[in-house]
Specification:
The chain has helices at residues 8-16, 30-41, 60-67, 74-78, 93-109, 122-129, 148-157, 169-172, and strands at residues 52-57, 81-87, 113-118, 136-144. The protein has 182 residues and is α+β, with helices and mostly antiparallel strands. The chain binds flavin mononucleotide.
Length: 182
C-alpha cells in the first residue's frame, strides 16, 4: 500500500509543474526513461483497461518527421526524448491524459522537464508511426533537462494571446450546482 504520510514537497511539485519547451542537449538515459514509463504504466484507468501504448522516439530524424504532423511542435524537435501516447480502441482521453500527466510529474521528480504537444494532423502521425487506423495518436510528450535561460527567453517572446498563470478558484469552483456559491 502506498504511504499516506503528508508530503508538502510533493504537493508543491504538483501544483508548481509548468511546461518546459527548451531543453539541454544531453540525452535521458535508459534508467530514467524506464522510470518515466513505469509511472505511466501504473496509472489508474477506467475498469483498469489501461488503454494506452507508448512509442518512444529519440532519433532526431523521426522526431522531426513527427513534428510535421502538428502546428506547434517545436518541443518535439528540440527535446532529446519524445513519448507518443497512443489511445487503444475503446479507450478514453481521460485515461490517457492521466497516464501522460503521471509521466510528466514523475519526470519532474527526476529533474526532467516536459511539454505535451498536439499532433493536429493525427492521420499523418498514425502513418509515420505505423499506428493502426482505429487507435488514437493525437498527443506526444517532449522530455528533456530544462534549459532555463532558453525557456525564460522563449516565454518572454510568447504570443500574448496565451494566458499566463491560472484562473482563480472563485472563477471555476461551484458549490452544489453550476453557478452555486459557497
Ligand atoms: C492537451 C494539451 C495539448 C498541448 N499542446 C501543445 C502544443 O501543441 N504545443 C505546445 O507548445 N504546447 C502545448 N501544450 C502546453 C500548453 O500550452 C500548456 O500546458 C499551457 O500553456 C500551460 O503552461 P504552463 O503550465 O507552463 O503554465 C499542450 C497542453 C495540453 C494539456
Amino acid at each position: 500500500m502506498q504511504s499516506f504520510e503528508p508530503s508538502p514537497e510533493t504537493y508543491e511539485r504538483i501544483t508548481g509543474l509548468r511546461v518546459v519547451r527548451k531543453y539541454r542537449p544531453e540525452p535521458i538515459d535508459d534508467q530514467q526513461l524506464e522510470k518515466i514509463l513505469e509511472a505511466g504504466r501504473w496509472t489508474g484507468s477506467s475498469k483498469n483497461t489501461q488503454p494506452w501504448s507508448f512509442i518512444v522516439l529519440s532519433d532526431p530524424g523521426q522526431r522531426q518527421r513527427l513534428a510535421e504532423c502538428g502546428s506547434f511542435t517545436g518541443p518535439l524537435v528540440g527535446a532529446p526524448l519524445v513519448v507518443v501516447v497512443v489511445r487503444l480502441p475503446g479507450g478514453g482521453d481521460f485515461d490517457i491524459g492521466r497516464a501522460a500527466q503521471n509521466m510528466m510529474e514523475s519526470a519532474a521528480a527526476l529533474g526532467i522537464g516536459s511539454c505535451p504537444v498536439t499532433l493536429h494532423r493525427e492521420s499523418c502521425a498514425r502513418e509515420r508511426l505505423h499506428v493502426p487506423e482505429d487507435h488514437g495518436c493525437r498527443w506526444a510528450l517532449a522530455f528533456g533537462y530544462p534549459d532555463l535561460d532558453g525557456e525564460r527567453q522563449l516565454r518572454a517572446g510568447l504570443r500574448s494571446t496565451i494566458p499566463r498563470g491560472r484562473k482563480p478558484l472563485s472563477e471555476l469552483v461551484h458549490y452544489g450546482r453550476f453557478g452555486g456559491e459557497s
